[in-house]
């Protein structure tokens, strides 16, 4: 019986066709792949780097999220935000599933086009673009792009005068994990003059875009944004622009997806007639839960507390905040460590021991020489972990490996083992 409320919510949104329980199959498949990969790695004899961090990605999870999106946000065509995790298999699957793509740079546009995706499925959703990248987009036929200031309009006029422009407006993103409106978005007292300038420059504004902030927690954040978008639509129409698109951005998270989708769908239907094309730019919604990471314990320090006569440990892993745990710094995440292998026991063997014995306290650190490289200040396990043991962390798919650095000479390229808990995803990818 599934007791984790998060998984209950997800299960509700997932399809249980013919009794097939995708999330349960996913858990088993991922656990098996993790176990197989770490078996046989002997720290005393292995090649340098054989014990490196690795991911297991369940592409079935991405597939299920897509079905869930289609079920609850029928009107909105998702344009996956590549920045969130440009994993080649994720992009390939989404390209096969027919989504569009939100690209932020030349490299992202290039990666998507190389999959054979038509340029009309791409939106260059970066309101402040590099000039040479606009020229590249023009050369490749990518016409949809966002803007939020006058200087950008002059650049676009110079390099892509027949661009299909979305005016990105400011939102109240105060209830989100990562606020984007500190940096982007035109305030409502500037939208009129921007639309007027676009008209004077003979540029085509075709719609409005917004983003309620990455990792938005309040479904109502969409209400104000949709109503502001409607007002700007009307300004554009009054000035003679052919306003026919609304881009509702990203910000969706698995935990609150259904209530969010309900609020958003209702607001869209109330404000935008059916001929208006609606797109979205979800990132973390698609991939956050699909990736699990496994890390090796490379060092340990014992901390004796004489006063309480207790022993705790500092564990050093081969990955940290300068690597795939960059999400701790940049994305305000708190990854939860779980034991994958302790001595000769694997996670499955340890299940029955979970409550036995007093818990030992650990702090978990990354491999660099910087003191801020801390993954967890305090966590407890009943087992005594040692050098060579393995930990794993779930929900490591969003804003993790894409922002890993090579600080201290550690690699930023790690193996990804792909599995699929959905036969549909397997078939599309020929797995
Ligand atoms: N669209 C734009 C313009 C963004 O800047 C971002 C994230 O920064 C996204 C979409 C994806 O947001 P999320 O991953 O929260 O869905």
UniProtKB/TrEMBL annotation:
Top EC group: lyase
Catalytic activity entry: L-ornithine + H(+) = putrescine + CO2
Domain spans labelled Orn/DAP/Arg decarboxylase 2 N-terminal: 59-288
Pathway: Amine and polyamine biosynthesis; putrescine biosynthesis via L-ornithine pathway; putrescine from L-ornithine: step 1/1
PROSITE patterns tied to this protein: ODR_DC_2_1
Cofactor: pyridoxal 5'-phosphate
Subcellular location: Cytoplasm
One annotated GO biological process: putrescine biosynthetic process from arginine, via ornithine
Listed EC numbers: 4.1.1.17
GO cellular component assignments: cytoplasm
Annotated catalytic residues: 369
GO molecular function, one term: ornithine decarboxylase activity
Pfam families reported for this sequence: Orn_Arg_deC_N
Residues with N6-(pyridoxal phosphate)lysine modification: 83
The entry's keywords: Cytoplasm, Lyase, Pyridoxal phosphate
Subunit structure: Homodimer. Only the dimer is catalytically active, as the active sites are constructed of residues from both monomers.
Recorded family membership: Belongs to the Orn/Lys/Arg decarboxylase class-II family.
Function noted in UniProt: Catalyzes the first and rate-limiting step of polyamine biosynthesis that converts ornithine into putrescine, which is the precursor for the polyamines, spermidine and spermine. Polyamines are essential for cell proliferation and are implicated in cellular processes, ranging from DNA replication to apoptosis.
Protein name: Ornithine decarboxylase
Gene source species: Carpinus fangiana
